[in-house]
Design brief:
Blueprint lengths: L3 H6 L7 E2 L2 E2 L1 E2 L10 H14 L9 H20 L8 E4 L2 H13 L8 E5 L8 H10 L2 E5 L12 H4 L4 E7 L11 H10 L4 E4 L11 H4 L3 E5 L10 E5 L1 H6 L10 E4 L4 E3 L13 H17 L1 H19 L5 E4 L8 E6 L4 H10 L2 E2 L1 E3 L4 H6 L5 E5 L6 H18 L1
Parallel strand pairs: 3-15, 5-6, 5-7, 7-8, 8-9
Antiparallel strand pairs: 1-2, 4-10, 9-10, 11-12, 13-14, 14-17, 16-17
The structure holds 4'-deoxy-4'-aminopyridoxal-5'-phosphate.
Length: about 400
């Protein structure tokens, strides 16, 4: 059992008022709020520890380096990677996927090769692959979903051909909450000789992740969806793959020697971290991981599932609501449209009540097209949300119906 009141006390923003009402923050799939310990870690770093890393002989530089590398160790343990060399700090999921697309995939594909994604991907797991297709003549293939938002996994075998060079798939779909059976998908891809990248942006704060048990080749996530700061994220990659990949960006820190004739590169993971990284962000992410682990992802997942069940039952009592995404296995994301109002109107009315939800295409325009809607409203809950907050949102949705009746 989670002590929600105690947990909420750790998040200063949750005590804010918006338009004179207590904030009800139900936009956690966009970004999560930050506990005081993470905010303090950032302040503390800039106040007492700030220096550039990996290059100083002075005390502060060595201290900052130690803290940054310690954060990498925390990430490694959190996702059960085999070594810190497999943990690349990046800006976020978007940069992680672009890195794999340009460094791992682009160099291997030729005209007519195939890149496999699914119909429920975020733009961050579509557009980088389209770039590679344009650059090389490769073809983007899309594994379809059914009307409930379940991936048609039984069709996977037919989509895996001798020309498939990578399968890039989301762990949890941001726009509809589907949890994909990635372990089985990875095994099937590997049996066909296809490496797999998992977009873990929506999964990392909601379910335990063990990259070695999953056997994924790459796993990408963003710190800001995990109680951490913005501008920091992680690319996990299997060491053998990362070691064989060319660097993604050139600059300081990623080199071993530079002359005008030839440059040699640093060892992993530094080969992929050109320039001064987000040092404070990495440290903050490490603290966010500590915090999350103290509470426990298994307990978090169980509580969020209760909230999801409660919210799903409640919203279906509101006339004119259509849920988008009712997959067999779902994370705490509730996407919907209403007969009475456009999603933007829903979002605006809820905002007047201090309730933050997302309205729009959720960076998944192909998925909106599949459901034949221009946009949707989305409630996404985190473990610091309460049943009372769900009630609050439901009352406001009933009012939307009254206003537009
Ligand atoms: N993939 C998924 C499934 C997401 O939900 C998001 C963020 N909405 C991203 C990728 C991109 O993450 P970021 O913007 O933090 O790079």
């Amino acid at each position: 059992m989670l002590d929600i009141a105690k947990i909420r006390a750790d998040f200063p923003i949750l005590h804010r008022e918006i338009h004179g009402q207590p904030l009800v923050y139900l936009d956690n799939a966009a970004t999560t709020q930050k506990p005081q310990c993470v905010i303090d870690a950032l302040t503390h770093y800039y106040q007492d520890e700030n220096a550039n890393i990996h290059r100083g002989v002075h005390y502060l530089s060595m201290e900052a380096t130690r803290l940054y590398e310690h954060a990498r160790e925390k990430v490694k343990n959190f996702i059960h990677a085999a070594s810190v060399e497999e943990i690349i700090f990046v800006r976020g999921t978007t940069e992680a996927i672009n890195l794999v697309a340009q460094s791992f995939v682009r160099s291997q594909v030729t005209k007519g090769d195939e890149i496999l994604i699914t119909a429920m991907e975020h733009h961050a797991n579509i557009v980088p692959w389209q770039f590679v297709c344009e650059q090389t003549g490769a073809v983007l293939k899309v594994l379809p979903i059914d009307q409930q938002g379940n991936l048609l996994v039984e069709q996977l075998a037919a989509y895996l051909t001798p020309r498939t060079k990578i399968c890039a798939i989301t762990h949890i779909a941001n726009a509809i909450g589907t949890v994909n059976p990635i372990k089985a998908i990875i095994a099937e891809c590997h049996a066909a000789g296809v490496p797999v990248l998992i977009d873990g942006a929506q999964a990392i704060a909601h379910t335990p992740v063990d990259v070695q048990a999953l056997d994924c080749d790459f796993y990408a996530f963003s710190g800001h969806k995990l109680l951490g700061p913005t501008g920091i994220g992680v690319l996990y990659g299997k060491k053998a793959l990362l070691a064989a990949m060319p660097p993604y960006q050139g600059g300081g820190d990623m080199i071993r020697t530079v002359s005008f004739e030839k440059t040699t590169f640093n060892v992993l993971p530094h080969k992929f971290e050109a320039g001064t990284p987000n040092i404070a962000g990495a440290i903050g992410l490490g603290v966010a991981i500590d915090y999350l682990q103290c509470i426990g992802l298994t307990a978090i997942n169980a509580y969020e599932q209760q909230l999801l069940r409660y919210a799903t039952a409640s919203i279906l009592e509101i006339p004119g609501v259509r849920l988008l995404g009712t997959a067999h296995e779902k994370a705490s994301i509730l996407a919907f449209v209403m007969q009475s109002a456009h999603p933007h109107d829903i979002g605006t009315i809820l905002d007047q009540h201090g309730i933050a939800i997302r309205a729009g295409h959720h960076c998944a325009m192909p998925l909106m097209a599949f459901f034949n809607v221009p946009a949707s409203a989305r409630i996404s809950v985190s473990f610091y949300n309460t049943f009372a907050e769900i009630d609050c949102a439901m009352e406001a949705l009933s009012e939307v119906n009254k206003i537009f009746a």
